[in-house]
Specification:
- By secondary structure, this protein is an alpha/beta fold.
- It is 39% helix and 18% strand.
- A seven-stranded mixed sheet has the order 3-2-7-17-18-19-20.
- 48% of the residues are buried.
- The longest helix is centred in the C-terminal third of the chain and has 20 residues.
- It has a single domain, classed as TIM Barrel (Alpha-Beta Barrel).
């Protein structure tokens, strides 16, 4: 047994701070929580970690990610609008999947994240079975808990809408290049659903949950989504979709389907507690009502949405209407360092302006803390097994150097979660435990050699491009310009009415 001591403990988003709190870990789960002196007397033989200088909280959960150790920016793709940025990412030099996922997991662990959702985008360099196996081995070796959702798409490969017409408009050499077969056979609708089902039957466990990650309704046919729904319901497996990330996706649904993409998913029967939609920046009020009514979850990715110019999701409105909203880094945190604490801070600050009325509601630190703990646990299919420090829960927890966080002074009357979001950062993480196992000690990962992984990644990413890779980069640069022209004028097709005002281009004064 391990006795984890703290000077201040916050067991859950809805629990009051417990000064001199502690808990006892027995194997993989929490056996008891309470005052330190009481537990020390009851469990006198337990090994003790922590101390009175630490803040003890549940392990944080990343509700949406892609397992990127090196961000696309680090590898050479500058941030821009999603529809053009995608083609920048296609130019990137391949790097080893194992090292990429391992480095991402290690950085997450060091920022207090004990569980992550990984929506895996195939690189196409090796067969999909091997790539899935390699990525999952990285999580096992790092000691991180994961919901692994392989991704797939089977329509609209270049633009939203008539891709045949778009291809016909391209220069012949570019069209021929784009239509050349990939080096490794791609998944089909049937092989995708079967592959995820096989992973679920062989690997689904408390440390590694398996779910479905069809990319998005604009990139997946209705037939595929119906097959995913059928199999997910049979397995009780979570489903992840990217939905309404950009205004162009909103316009595509209205123009091509005659309804919003969320209404479309509802008509297909996809909306349910098994489904979580990533981003959800451009929902209508009716969309939000549908999400709440069906128990469908959503994840908010503030830094990603800012970096890729997609907008700001109406998080407070969704929460007030009863939508389960979680929080995710999406592999594009504000500093490219997978600092979940900093992402919580960005989320909190961004939604303080949901209303400009004096004394109006805004997103509180406790609400953000819930998004990153208990809500994400539910969205990832773990329920109350994670996200809280209670007897019977898995022993996923974080000790932060609270003394350093508060130096030189913070009024002790402040809620520790407010202090965490105002002053905390990954460098304050001291000890991280996952499933009863210490994976970070003194701020450093103990499961893998992070320096060795980083060195291998840097070496792979810095290799000179081959002739084939140079040709690909040139083709993507050319294609990107055609894509930008394709979307010209689209934003004039709607008149947005934002959920909150942050400035005004006219005086607008009404006496």
């Amino acid at each position: 047994m391990i006795l984890v001591r703290s000077g201040m403990m916050v067991p859950a988003h809805d629990a009051p701070p417990l000064p001199n709190g502690a808990l006892v870990v027995a194997g993989e789960t929490i056996a008891a929580i309470g005052p330190y002196q009481e537990l020390r007397a009851r469990f006198s033989g337990a090994r003790e970690i922590g101390g009175e200088d630490f803040l003890l909280i549940p392990g944080l959960i990343n509700g949406h990610g892609h397992g990127r150790g090196l961000s696309s920016f680090q590898r050479g793709a500058s941030d821009n609008s999603l529809e053009s940025w995608i083609w920048e990412t296609r130019k990137l030099i391949p790097i080893p999947v194992y090292d990429d996922v391992s480095f991402s997991a290690l950085r997450l662990l060091k920022s207090g994240v004990t569980t992550t959702m990984h929506n895996h985008l195939l690189t196409g360099a090796i067969p999909h079975e091997e790539e899935f196996s390699v990525a999952l081995k990285a999580y096992r070796d790092s000691g991180m808990r994961v919901l692994f959702c392989p991704s797939f798409r089977n329509q609209n490969p270049f633009v939203y809408g008539d891709n045949e017409r778009f291809l016909a408009s391209l220069p012949q050499n570019l069209r021929r290049f784009l239509l050349s077969p990939p080096p490794v056979p791609v998944l089909t609708q049937e092989t995708y659903v079967h592959a995820v089902g096989e992973l679920h039957s062989t690997l689904n466990s408390p440390m590694c949950r398996i779910g479905f990650g069809p990319l998005a309704p604009q990139w997946c046919t209705g037939d595929l989504l119906l097959e995913v729904r059928k199999e997910a319901e049979r397995l009780g497996a979570p489903v992840l979709l990217h939905v309404l990330e950009t205004v162009f996706q909103k316009i595509y649904g209205l123009a091509s389907l005659g309804k919003t993409l969320i209404e479309y998913l509802n008509d297909l029967g996809l909306l349910s507690p098994l489904l979580t939609i990533g981003h959800c920046v451009w929902p209508t009020e009716k969309d939000i009502e549908l999400l709440a009514k069906t128990g469908t979850g959503a994840t908010h990715h503030p830094s990603s949405n800012l970096r890729l110019r997609t907008g700001i999701a109406p998080v407070l409105d969704m929460l007030q209407r009863g939508v389960r909203v979680g929080l995710g880094l999406d592999g594009t945190g504000i500093n490219d360092n997978d600092d979940m604490i900093q992402e919580m801070k960005v989320c909190s600050l961004l939604h303080r302006v949901s209303s400009t009325d004096v004394g109006s509601p805004f997103l509180t630190a406790r609400q953000v803390f819930r998004m990153a703990t208990e809500t994400n646990a539910g969205l990832l299919g773990f329920g109350r097994e994670l996200g809280r420090l209670e007897p019977g829960c898995f022993a996923d927890l974080v000790l932060l150097d609270y003394e350093k966080m508060c130096a030189p002074f913070v009024d002790p009357a402040h809620d520790p979660i407010d202090v965490l979001l105002y002053r905390g950062k990954a460098s304050h993480v001291h000890t991280v435990m996952v499933n009863g196992r210490i994976v970070v000690k003194d701020g450093q990962a103990v499961t893998m050699n992070e320096g060795d992984v980083a060195a291998r990644l840097a070496e792979a990413a810095s290799l000179p491009r081959t002739d084939k890779q140079k040709a690909l980069a040139e083709a993507m640069d050319e294609l990107k310009q055609h894509v930008i022209r394709h979307y010209g004028g689209w934003t004039k097709k709607i008149r947005p009415r934002p959920y909150f005002d942050i400035n005004s281009r006219q005086d607008g004064f009404q006496a």
